Amino acid sequence: MATKTENPNTNLPLFYKNPVALDAAAHKDWKLNAALDFSFTKTANAVPINVIEMPQICHFYPIAFSPDGRATPVALIGLRDNENLFLNAKSEWLSDAYIPSYIRRYPFIFSEGQDGGQLTLCIDDTPQTVLHKGEGQGFFDDKNGPSQLSSNALEFCKSYHAAAQQTLAFSAELAQSGLLVDRQAEITVPGDKKLQFAGFQIVDEAKLADLPDAEFLKWRKNGWLPFLYAHLFSSAQWQRLTRLLNDRMANGG
User: Given this model, what pLDDT does residue 11 score?
Assistant: First the structure.
């Protein structure tokens, strides 16, 4: 298992293949592909999350942190490489599970200017996401202004970007805090076989309990303690992941 937040063969964010800045003149005929579903997540076993959604995430997924020194929080959605256990055969997300905002944002994303100040709304231009001709929801109206679809996407991306900045600050502090430890899990699958699951980090509860008072107060002042506790509470969801895997393997998956 690897908690990857980028495409394996590019430096692009996970899931994105060809982000293009939306432009009214160049893309007035472009439409969102109505057939777009969650199949783009099929081969992911972890997805980045923002700290503000961790109190919701912890009720559905184990939360871990990337082992790359950046401590990116991720929701674990699979236990084997290239497998999302929350996606059914119809490419539908399990109906009783919260869908992380990183997934709900797709296929839109912001690109940042070189100075980090200019944000531009982009669409991942692939045959699965965009129709260059045909019927469907357009990105621009007949006056070359943003359509309701684009306006909604822009607002969602703004909210996501703000939450992502908060997450970066949290992760930077966590990465240098000494609280994280490498972990691996051993999962029992049908046939009484053992599956090793590794490549992630968690907060060590003993180290958190021993945190100096001044450090603990800093975490509380920054409003980050609920996120640490959500991560710790999420460990109960390992049982759910194991059950989903066992059910899939029992059905020949």
Answer: 84
